[in-house]
Amino acid sequence: MQVAALSLGMVFLCCLQAYAEVPVQPDFQDDKIVGQWFSIGTASNSKWFLDKSFSLTAHTAVINQNADGTLEVNSTYPSADQCETRSMTLIKTEQPGRFRATSPRWVNEHDFRFVSTNYDEYALVYDREAKATDFLTMVTLYGRSKNLRPELQEKFKIFSLDQGLPQSSIITLPQTDKCMTDA
C-alpha cells in the first residue's frame, strides 16, 4: 500500500514538474499581441474536443487590451447557420505572457501562456484548464493570416506532442470564410 502511494506521489510530482516547464515567450509585450488572429491548428486531451474534432473549423480571436492591463479575447466560431461569439478576460500574472482566467460559460479556471510569438505572423498558445475532477490541456496555433508557413505548423505539432497530447488530437483546422470578418 505504501509503495502504491509513493508511486502515485512520484507520478504526480513528475506531472507538476512537466507542467511547470511550459515556456512563455521571453520579453512578452502585451500591446503587440492585440488585434485579430485566425486559428490555424489546435490540439487537446479533452474528451469533448476529441469527440467533436471532426466537425471543428477555424475561428477568429480578437484581442484588446483594457486600461487595467487585462486582455479581452472575443472569439467568433461558425456554429450551424450563425456565428457564436465567446468572450474571456485574461488577467495578468507576475510572469509576462502568462495569464489566468475563469471561463464564464463553464466556471473553470484557465492558465494561459503565450508560448511563442513574433506578434505579426503567429502565436502559439497553451491553455491548462482546471476542471472539477481533472486538468485539460489545449494548444492552439494562431496566425495573423489564414495560412502559415509549414515550419510554424510543425513547431505547433512538436510542442503539442511535447505536452503529452496524442498525435490523433492534433488537427489543422479547415479554413472557412464564415464568421471571418475583419476586426
TrEMBL record:
Keywords, alphabetical: Signal
Pfam families reported in the protein's UniProt record: Lipocalin
Source species, domain of life: Eukaryota
Signal peptide limits: 1-20
GO MF term set: small molecule binding
Keyword Signal appears in the UniProt entry: yes
Domain Lipocalin/cytosolic fatty-acid binding per the UniProt entry, residue ranges: 34-177
Gene3D superfamilies: 2.40.128.20
Family stated for the protein in its record: Belongs to the calycin superfamily. Lipocalin family.
Name of the protein this chain belongs to: Lipocalin/cytosolic fatty-acid binding domain-containing protein
